[in-house]
Design brief:
Structural class: mainly beta
Strand order of the largest sheet: 3-4-5-2-1-6
Helix content: under 10%
Order of helices and strands: EEHEEEHEEEEEEE
Number of strands: 12
CATH superfamily of the largest domain: RimM
Number of domains: 2
CATH architecture of the largest domain: Beta Barrel
CATH topology of the largest domain: Elongation Factor Tu (Ef-tu), domain 3
Length: 168
């Protein structure tokens, strides 16, 4: 897990004429972005070094060491920004976890049948969905609700999933 990168933000474009950047954040506290300072690109290479940030609608407005003017800020539009998973503080309680920690877990029925592995976690606006990669066939989606996922056992490397009944 130590080498896994987690997307925490995306550059939305320039703000003003002095090289500030609008950044959409995917963190609970938008200013957490500034605390990480050095943000990476998806391939792990250096992305941006945040020197200051303030909360704005939908995220933050920030200054970055690498950006001097509006044109440079605008050229970064769409850039996804990542941090290493191990840069996050550990969960406070034993039964807490990050959604990113679900990726790679085995998905089993309450009876022990293996349904696959968690390939990704997405929120398309109606709540979190787990993309399940089964041993055979196409991936499928499992809502991340108490009903569909009654147990998460991070230490055991698995979660218990109840596959939705397909309507006819």
């Amino acid at each position: 897990m130590a080498d896994r990168l987690l997307q925490i933000a995306r550059v939305a474009g320039a703000f003003g004429v002095r090289g500030e950047i609008r950044i959409s954040t995917f963190t609970e506290d938008p200013l957490a972005l500034a605390a990480y300072k050095t943000l990476l690109r998806q391939d792990g290479s250096h992305g941006l070094t945040i020197t200051s940030a303030r909360v704005a609608k939908g995220g933050v407005v920030a200054r970055a060491k690498e950006v001097a003017d509006r044109d440079q800020a605008e050229a970064l539009r769409g850039l996804k920004l990542f941090i290493p998973r191990d840069a996050l503080p550990p969960p406070e309680d034993e039964d807490e976890f990050y959604l990113a920690d679900l990726i790679g877990l085995s998905v089993e029925t309450p009876e022990g049948e293996v349904l696959g592995r968690v390939k990704s976690v997405h929120d398309f606006g109606a709540g979190d969905l787990l993309e399940i990669d089964p041993p055979q066939g196409a991936t499928w989606w499992l809502p991340f609700t108490r009903e569909a996922v009654p147990e998460v056992r991070i230490a055991e490397g698995k979660l218990i999933g109840v596959r939705p009944v397909e309507s006819e």
